[in-house]
Design a protein that fits this description.
This protein has 771 residues and is of the alpha/beta class. 33% of the residues lie in helices and 25% in strands. Strands 8, 10, 13, 18 and 19 form a five-stranded parallel beta sheet that branches. A five-stranded mixed beta sheet has the order 21-28-27-23-25, with no helix packed on it. The chain has a four-stranded antiparallel beta sheet with strand order 4-3-6-7. Residues 487-496 have a biased composition (Basic and acidic residues).
């Protein structure tokens, strides 16, 4: 079929050319005589697909919420994104229709091209600005100033506001709209006649994890930071500096991670920065840390302060991955208790610790259970998680009673997320501010006779540009035309709307995108292993706070929300904490021992224990075990107490019963019977129990027996001679002069003259037995 079409097309080509030539000639004749006319150029404001040729950026709207008598000033840039030069162009303001509902603002942001029916006409008069010839890729600044009365705004509400560029291009030489940018303009020149909306703006003061458990080996325990990035955030122009500077003059509720305060407070003294090969260099941020803390103490005065649990633990990760790991949830209670102490000590204010803030306000029943288990009876949720029934005619108040005495404080999703984008460009920041104000006015217009309490929970760690945009928006509400500021605590106590949803969704509703960022179950198991190792280590310490405090804080940081999306960083942090704990544990150790020879039936075996810590250790027992107790028996255990930086030698009594090598194992144990550290094994060679020694010992015993027998026989003979020499009258017989000495003793029982020489060395030569 394709081949037939191709052949047919080839054969008809001459006829087609003849037809085109004839038609062209006929059209020319008709034009000459004026019988037909070419189509007119498109209208100046029609969209023929070219309204995206020029990019229009609205960098500022002043004032953001004008009053009667104000002059509205709009500035920005136009950029030629096309391939043709633009000439005869001008920038003008267009007022569109009033926006009816909150979702219409969302729809407005999705429109790009010019629409004659909805974008309105140009504001008349001399309110245009001409633009010089605009080459491809070239930008021009513009500023439009229009008295508000010339905008012809009607009743109070939110109006669509457009800034358009109209002109001609070198390839299409007729005027048309080549680019447009839309924003919104809240219009309420005076205070509302109804009830004002109560607005709570949470101002988060949270940072990434900066401190580990590592310190210098000195009495002051000088902390070591992985880097000095925190000093940059605290310095003028830094993110945390801007948050404190801007927040001071705003009607906000401070929401603070106490771990940040602890890290900054540590920087006010001497601190180190991690360097290669386990070394460190001095930190240089003491001045900025002191200045920042002073500014913060001044800024929070008179404001409500909410302290998150220490380290800002990831509640969703705990609920979904950690709660089944034994002991993990106890850290949340500890973090809550430490939060209050830290904030009160450093800032001098008593914080609220009864609020929990899951990531992005996403909640389910398991998250609420975990969050409230540590005493936080108010859970900050968001309206895109705890959704209201379809068709609810207005935005309900934030507070919802969710059972068991707990309250869900449901932040408005549109107001809370409007500043999440990249606010580095003035165009994006300006658009966000206008949308925030417009949304807040529309909330008020939904039910002007009902007082409602709205909460704004922005991103956890706003950038500097985001914070500046937030501050601009909050400041614009300060005149109280349709809103009033409210503390978070008061918002939680507000009367709930009867039509509001009070049912917390189940775990299956949790967003998969957020679940994929959670800490894993394996991560929580590693965290608990570190805690168990710390528990085993601390029992031998006499100054436990020097170890328990920094490691306990580090374990809380291992569960921080700041690790979301950074599993590698979280794993590296956990490994660093565990490695440092292992290093400290190994500083209390048995000193290696070489094999030894035992010379004698009994002797002592010395075993040395070293304490490399700067504190005294106690609560250890050193146990020595023989592999062959029948050959070599040893005393089993002795208590060990060693001052810091010292070594102690413990001596064990032994008793040898037979020759040969015997393996001996030395092991430290805690008082609860758990082994501590690695054992030390060595061999004892028993060599001094020889046959000759045994023969000498036996000979000595035999000599003693013989000596005793000789004495007995001598006494018996002496007694017999005395009986023979007695006369009839009982007198002893007189033998006259004695004959020659026959060697017999003069007194009964006296030893013979040879006894001394026989016992001169009863032990034999070479005996080393300790008796």
């Amino acid at each position: 079929m394709a081949e037939a079409a191709e052949i047919q097309g080839t054969r008809s080509a001459p006829a087609c050319r003849w037809f085109r030539h004839t038609a062209t000639l006929l059209l020319g004749v008709l034009l000459v005589f004026g019988l037909v006319q070419l189509p007119a150029a498109p209208a100046a404001h029609a969209d023929n697909g070219g309204s995206r040729t020029v990019g229009v950026a609205v960098d500022s709207v002043t004032p953001v919420a004008p009053k009667q008598g104000d002059t509205l000033t709009i500035s920005g840039t136009v950029t030629n994104h096309g391939k043709s030069t633009i000439f005869g162009a001008h920038v003008a303001l267009r007022v569109g229709p009033q926006i009816g509902g909150r979702s219409d603002i969302d729809d407005l942001g999705q429109r790009t091209g010019y629409s004659p029916g909805t974008d309105g006409n140009e504001v008349g008069g001399n309110h245009r600005q001409k633009i010089d010839k605009l080459l491809p890729g070239v930008s021009r600044d513009f500023t439009l100033s229009v008295p508000v009365k010339d905008l012809d705004l009607g009743r109070d509400g939110v109006y669509q506001l457009g800034v358009s560029l109209s002109g001609q291009t070198s390839d299409q030489q007729y005027e048309r709209v080549l680019g447009i940018q839309r924003t919104v303009l809240p219009w309420q020149p005076s205070a509302t006649e109804g009830k004002k909306t109560q607005v709570t703006f949470m101002w988060p003061l949270i940072s990434a994890t900066h401190l580990t458990a590592r310190t210098e080996s000195d009495q002051q325990q000088t902390p070591i930071f992985p880097n000095d990035d925190l000093a940059k955030e605290l310095a003028p122009g830094g993110r945390l500096y801007q948050l404190v500077t801007l927040g001071k003059s705003l009607p906000i509720t401070w929401v603070i991670d106490p771990d940040l305060l602890a890290a900054v407070e540590a920087m006010t003294k001497s601190y180190g920065i991690d360097a290669p090969e386990g070394k460190s260099t001095p930190g240089k941020g003491q001045a900025v840390a002191k200045q920042w803390l002073y500014k913060l103490q001044d800024a929070v005065a008179g404001h409500q302060v909410v302290a998150l649990p220490f380290g800002d633990p990831d509640l969703a990760s705990l609920a979904h991955r950690g709660k089944d790991v034994s002991g993990i949830l106890s850290h949340l209670q500890s973090a809550t208790e430490l939060a209050s102490t830290t904030v009160e000590t450093i800032l001098g204010v008593k914080p609220r610790t009864d609020f929990a803030w899951p990531v992005d306000g996403a909640v389910d029943t398991s998250i609420v259970d975990v969050a409230t288990s540590a005493g936080a009876h108010n859970v900050i949720a968001r309206s895109d998680s705890l959704r209201d029934p379809a068709g609810t005619p207005y935005t309900p108040s934030a507070a919802r009673q969710i059972g068991s005495g707990n309250t869900a404080v449901v932040a408005d999703a549109r107001l809370s997320t409007v500043f999440q984008g990249d606010m580095l460009r003035a165009h994006d920041a300006s658009l966000a501010v206008q949308r925030f104000l417009a949304q807040s006015l529309l909330i008020n217009k939904q039910a002007p006779d009902d007082e409602r309490s709205i909460v704004v929970a922005p991103q956890r760690m706003p950038t500097t540009s985001q914070a500046q945009a937030m501050a601009t928006a909050i400041g614009a509400l300060s005149d109280g035309r349709w809103t009033q500021p409210r503390d978070l605590g008061d918002a939680a106590k507000a009367k709930p709307d009867a039509s509001a949803n009070q049912q917390v969704p189940g775990p299956g509703s949790y967003p998969g995108s957020l679940r994929s960022q959670e800490l894993t179950t394996e991560a929580f198991q590693e965290i608990q292993r570190t805690q168990n190792a710390l528990d085993s280590f601390k029992v031998i310490l006499t100054s436990q706070d020097r170890v328990v405090t920094p490691f306990g804080s580090a374990i809380m940081r291992e569960m921080s929300t700041s690790w979301r999306g950074d599993r590698r960083g979280a794993a590296d942090f956990r490994n660093a904490v565990q490695s440092y704990l292992d290093q400290l544990t190994r500083t209390v150790n048995l000193i290696s021992k070489s094999d030894m020879t035992l010379s004698g039936r009994s002797a002592t075996i010395p075993v040395s224990v070293h304490n490399g810590l700067l504190q005294r250790i106690d609560g250890l027992k050193l146990v020595l075990k023989s592999s062959q107790p029948n050959r070599l028996k040893v005393d089993e255990s002795q208590d060990v107490k060693i001052e810091g930086g010292r070594s102690q030698t413990v001596k064990f009594e032994t008793r040898a019963n037979a020759n040969g090598p015997v393996q001996v194992t030395a092991q430290l144990y805690t008082d609860d019977g758990e082994p501590y550290g690695a054992p030390v094994k060595f061999t004892v060679h028993v060599t001094s129990i020889t046959p000759m020694v045994l023969l000498v010992i036996a000979g000595g015993v035999l000599l003693l027996v013989l000596a005793g027998l000789r004495i007995y026989l001598q006494r018996k003979r002496s007694a017999a001679r005395g009986a023979e020499g007695d006369g009839p009258d009982g007198d002893e017989g007189d033998t006259g002069d004695s004959g020659p000495d026959d060697g017999r003793p003069e007194q009964p029982g006296d030893p013979g003259p040879d006894t001394g020489s026989q016992n001169s060395d009863p032990s034999g030569s070479g005996e080393k037995v300790d008796r």
